[in-house]
TrEMBL record:
Pfam families: Ribosomal_S6. Keywords: Ribonucleoprotein, Ribosomal protein, RNA-binding, rRNA-binding. NCBIfam families: S6. Belongs to the bacterial ribosomal protein bS6 family. GO terms for cellular component: ribosome. Coiled coil: none annotated. SUPFAM superfamilies: Ribosomal protein S6 (SSF54995). Binds together with bS18 to 16S ribosomal RNA. It comes from the Bacteria. InterPro entries: Ribosomal_bS6, Ribosomal_bS6_sf, Ribosomal_S6_plastid/chlpt, Transl_elong_EF1B/ribsomal_bS6. This is Small ribosomal subunit protein bS6.
Amino acid sequence: MNKYELALVVSANVDEEVRNATVEQVKELITRFGGTITDPGTCEKKKLAYEIQKMSEGFYCFIKFDADAACPAEVESRIRIMENVIRFLIVKDGE
């Protein structure tokens, strides 16, 4: 098992319920493809470094998880089509 960290930026233009549902969907994807979430993290509203889709703010969520090498690619392919997710990045945690 490898350690990974997912950085997720969710649109600030959606309701809190929709934002929480989006984050929960991502967590379910991780567990569906064999990952175990070690740190669910929190979501904080921050200003974006540059405008994305005419938005200047977003909710940053960081999720740490353990998974096999195939899991991140599967999760990325599903996150890519989520409309409330502005940007995302999965990196191997080097602790």
